[in-house]
UniProtKB/TrEMBL annotation:
The keyword Methyltransferase applies. Pfam families: Methyltransf_25 (PF13649). This is Methyltransferase domain-containing protein. It comes from Phaeovibrio sulfidiphilus. GO terms for molecular function: trans-aconitate 2-methyltransferase activity. InterPro entries: Methyltransf_25 (IPR041698), SAM-dependent_MTases_sf (IPR029063), Trans_acon_MeTrfase_C (IPR023149).
Length: 266
């Protein structure tokens, strides 16, 4: 997977903060000793966790050195946040935690039937597995726009274009997790981000434009901004705005909070 270009990615908006806050408030532990934050990105989730739990140590994990460096610059909550560069196949080295947290990562990773049970093994007996995933349902604008990218002469065939994982229905996650935890909550929320924009992608909510594959032209030394201009022209009809330039993005998210792992299953 090619790394997302921080110079082009939209800034994290209030909608992402709301989804993070909603998940954090459902953790339900008052004083967790340690939280593992998977896919921490620029560190927003880790800093929000540190603010909510002022005595907790947080291990913030990502695979992109550039985003981790940005996260370090943004602050480590007086040394309580430790930033770690680890791939998913190395997560079993993270050790025990009271909370395994992830917001906006697992829609990019296949194999939830294998990954989720393995992460329960990292939890203390009273631990919480808390996950949010944007649900990229068929027919959303960026999915319908993805073929435009494939038709561009600069497209290099990267598998990341339109390649967010097709998330399972809630009942599938229930079947995976119910035998392995004492309590399971699954719910979905639709947020609406209201953005004033001069073109269809400027200001797009974080996580929404990435699956289209804007990183494809990074193989060209002069490519990405020319690519964006051409791409925007091709998808202008997909991202509709009103007469005032307002675009309303519906953002559907699935949340999973699994509590108290069952020992015999992990």
């Amino acid at each position: 997977m090619i790394a997302w270009d921080l110079a082009v990615a939209p800034s994290v908006d209030v909608t992402r903060k709301r989804s993070l806050q909603d998940l954090i408030e459902r953790i339900g532990l008052e004083h967790p000793a340690r939280i593992i934050d998977l896919g921490c990105g620029s560190g927003l989730s880790s800093r929000m966790l540190a603010k909510r739990f002022p005595e907790t140590r947080i291990t913030a994990v990502d695979i992109n050195p550039e985003t981790l460096e940005r996260a370090r610059r943004e602050g480590d909550a007086d040394g309580r946040i430790t930033f770690v560069d680890l791939r998913p196949d190395e997560w079993d080295t993270l050790g025990r935690a009271d909370v395994v947290f992830s917001c906006g990562l697992f829609q990019k990773l296949p194999g939830h039937e294998r990954i989720f049970p393995s992460l329960l093994k990292l939890l203390s007996p009273w631990g919480v597995f808390a996950v949010m995933m944007p649900r990229n349902v068929e027919g959303q604008p960026y999915e319908r726009a993805a073929p435009a990218v494939r038709g561009l002469p600069w497209f290099d065939g990267t598998e990341h274009v339109g390649a967010s994982v097709a998330l399972a229905p809630a009942i599938r996650y229930s079947r995976i997790l119910t035998p392995r935890v004492h309590k399971l909550d699954i719910w979905e929320t639709v947020y609406h981000a209201v953005v004033k924009s001069q073109h269809p992608l400027e200001g797009a909510p974080n996580g929404q434009s990435e699956p289209i594959g804007l990183e494809a032209p990074r193989t060209r030394s002069d490519g990405i901004y020319d690519f964006l201009d051409e791409y925007i022209e091709q998808v202008r009809g997909v991202y509709q705005s009103d007469e005032n330039g307002i675009i309303v993005y519906p953002l559907r998210h699935i949340f999973i909070v699994a509590r108290n792992p069952v020992t015999q299953h992990i």
